[in-house]
Amino acid sequence: MKQKLFAVMMISMFALLQCGGEPSDFEDPDIKLTAGLPFKEPPAHIVGATWPRSTPEQEGLDSAAVERLRAYLLSRQGDDENRQGVRTNAFVLIRNGKIVMEEYARGYTSETAMLTWSVSKSITNALVGRAVMNRGLNINDSASVCVPALDRESHRSVLVRHLLQMSSSLAFDESYEASPVFSSVIAMLYTRGRADMSKFTASLDLAHKAGTHWNYSSGDSNIVMECLKKYYGNDYNNMPWTELFDPLQIQNAVWERDGAGTFVGSSYLYLRATDLARIGYLYMHDGVWNGKRLLPEGWVNYSLTVVPAYYNRKTISVSERADNPTAYWYRNVGNSKMNIEKPWPGAPDDAFAALGHWGKGLWVIPSLDMVVVRLGDDRRYGCRWPDEKNCEADQDKAYSKHHLLKLVTETVKK
């Protein structure tokens, strides 16, 4: 009897897991690209093979505030062995279309193509936009159209746009060092999944109804990268360069691939800091670069829309409070329904970002006509919330996104 009761309970729990317990009225409409931007676009400037340069003072920045920012970025509270303190590798500040601040440390230079980790996902977003514009990709289609491993009855409900918004509901575990045994991402990047990262992720069960649950997943972005193979065919190997890097005059880019030849869209793009800034500048100007449209009209607007499934929950964990995720980007909007303030309270509301592991970040602040790139190797962050654990309370002794953005914003003369 106990065995039968246990079986019934497990079946019930499994059914609940499959539907995710989501309310039946949750809406998941098709995406229609709509012209416009969620911010006021600043004037566009022509950028050549190298960025124009200026001084902070000429572009309306306060010298003393710039020095405070520089001191924070280059401060060292620990050595390379213990990996403590602020560990900046590169910092670039673009103001009014010109480089006004550029700093390198720890052996890195302006010519170094640096690992961007999950900032790679935001560039993956741009490549999908190019495929929508030039190759007929429809993000409202089932991903099974372009990913054979998803072409089974249980998974055909996963749409391309679900993957782009990390709401595929594939049971992917993004934990890293804290849970290496159960981590899907470690298995995908380093062990049994590295031969074919997309196939590895697509083999996972659905933990919820597709489209109804947001779960940070590097696996979703690698499935997207496989999907692009269908639309580029023999052109796939050169696709990032011909579609994006060459038009933006990006140099020295390196993008690793898995054993199946798929670009690792989640993690393994290497770019110079000044070239990463070009991606931010493209998005600040609605996908138009030097007068030429590279992304579909409405693509940036869609890409910066917070994932509907992100709000489809009763609570948000401490680690997720600062996410405000969109389609591989992040917004500074907070979550009023859950009484969560915006993640970078010292920055303007229109700020958005591409973010990566260990202090990698690209921020765009349209109202200040700024693009900010900071690439680091930080292993302990500054605290953002009072109830946060395992973080540094002293803002000047560890890197934190909100403190960096506060210092950046303060450089602008009032």
Key words describing this protein structure:
alpha+beta; 414 residues; 11 helices; 3-stranded antiparallel β-sheet; 27% helix; 6-stranded antiparallel β-sheet; Beta-lactamase; globular
Structure characterization notes:
The protein is an alpha+beta fold and 414 residues long. It has a single domain, classed as DD-peptidase/beta-lactamase superfamily (Beta-lactamase), CATH 3.40.710.10. The chain is 27% helix and 11% strand. It is built from eleven helices and eleven strands. The protein has helices at 2-19, 63-74, 120-134, 160-164, 184-190, 197-202, 218-232, 239-245, 273-284, 299-303, 401-410; strands at residues 88-95, 98-104, 114-115, 254-255, 269-271, 288-289, 292-293, 330-331, 352-356, 360-365, 370-376. The strands form three sheets. The protein has a six-stranded antiparallel sheet, sandwiched between helices. A three-stranded antiparallel sheet has the order 3-5-4. Strands 6-7 form a two-stranded antiparallel sheet. It starts with a helix and ends with a helix.
Quick synopsis:
By secondary structure, this protein is an alpha+beta fold. 27% of the residues lie in helices and 11% in strands.
Which CATH class is shown?
A: Alpha Beta
Indicate the overall shape.
globular
CATH homologous superfamily (4th level) name: DD-peptidase/beta-lactamase superfamily
The share of residues in extended strands comes to 5-15%
Q: What is the percent of helical residues? A: 25-40%
Could you give the count of β-strands? 11
Q: What is the gyration radius calculated from CA atoms?
A: 21 Å
CATH architecture: 3-Layer(aba) Sandwich
For the record, the count of structural domains works out to 1
Give me the number of helical elements. Answer: 11
Output the strand order for the largest sheet. Answer: 2-1-11-10-9-8
Looking at the structure, the CATH topology is Beta-lactamase
Mean pLDDT: 91
Structural class: alpha+beta
Distance between the termini: 74 Å
In this structure, how is the largest beta sheet organized? 6 strands, antiparallel
User: Which stretches are low in confidence, meaning pLDDT under 50 for 5 or more residues running?
Assistant: 1-22
SSE order: HHEEEHHHHHHEEHEEHEEEEH
